[in-house]
Write a structure and sequence with these properties.
Length: 234
């Protein structure tokens, strides 16, 4: 059995205070979850047996208090420094931070804003990632395939109008939109590439509803209604 098959997987969950577009986005009530998206996401991550450890990186006292109350042995709570917690902090700034916190094995970088990626789906993604490493990929990220008439100012991007001006969208080769649901890579990729993916990532497609990402207030409202609908039909 290779090292890649046995090395632990640590979920890295960045969760800063002070969302500008959606106030208290991470912790405000969401459907039946009194502590909102962070409650849902920590439940999903801790409920996935394929994840060995969960590292929550946050500067939000309300989130820290909630997470401590879970008393979960597999959960590490890190109070993030303020210079890494502003709206100006880039993802690139957090790459070294994640690597320092995890140290070894594999990092599964995910977000509370993807509430429909469940524990079972995380397990499937991790299994696909380990197989991908054996197949020559060096990392994995989830995507949403787009088959649409995509244009720039210079003309069509996703299809050739000299062949067919308006092809059926089903026949257009998919373009993959990165949905930020999950990124998986060995820790050494972070050190060598200063990135959360390597040079040859496996693209793992998710359907649009599963990959739904909450970025704006309207997204929050829509996702909450989707969750309540799922619960009502369960």
């Amino acid at each position: 059995m290779s090292t890649s098959e046995t090395a632990p997987v640590t979920a890295f969950l960045p969760c800063r205070k002070g969302s500008e577009r959606v106030p208290r986005k991470n912790i405000r009530p969401f459907g039946p979850a009194a502590h909102g998206l962070v409650e849902i996401k920590l439940g999903q991550l801790l409920g996935c047996a394929a994840i060995d450890q969960v590292v929550l990186s946050t500067n939000d006292d309300e989130i820290i208090d909630f997470a401590h109350g879970l008393a979960a042995p597999r959960l590490t709570i890190h109070r993030r420094a303020e210079h890494l917690s502003s709206s100006a902090t880039s993802t690139d700034d957090l790459v070294a931070h994640a690597s320092d916190l995890v140290g070894a094995g594999h990092i599964l970088w995910t977000h509370v804003t993807s509430p429909f990626i469940t524990a079972a789906l995380y397990a499937e993604i991790i299994a696909a990632y380990r197989l991908a490493l054996d197949d020559g990929y060096d990392s994995l990220m989830t995507t949403t395939p787009l088959q649409a008439f995509l244009w720039t100012e210079d003309g069509p991007l996703s299809y050739d109008r000299s062949i067919e001006k308006w092809p059926r969208t089903q026949t257009i080769p998919p373009v993959h939109e990165i949905n930020s649901g999950a990124f998986l890579a060995p820790v050494d990729i972070y050190a060598r590439h200063h990135d959360r993916i390597g040079a040859h990532p496996r693209l793992y497609p998710l359907d649009r509803l599963t990959a739904f990402d909450i970025d704006w207030e309207a997204d929050f409202v829509i996702a909450e209604q989707l969750l309540l609908k799922d619960l009502a039909s369960a």
